[in-house]
Amino acid sequence: QQWSQEVIPALFGPYLLNLKSTQFLHHFTNIQSYQPSATNCGDSCPQHTLKISCVLFDCIEEIKITFCSCAPAPGQLISYGLFPCSPVFPSLAVDL
Question: Would the pTM count as exceeding 0.90?
Answer without folding.
Answer: no
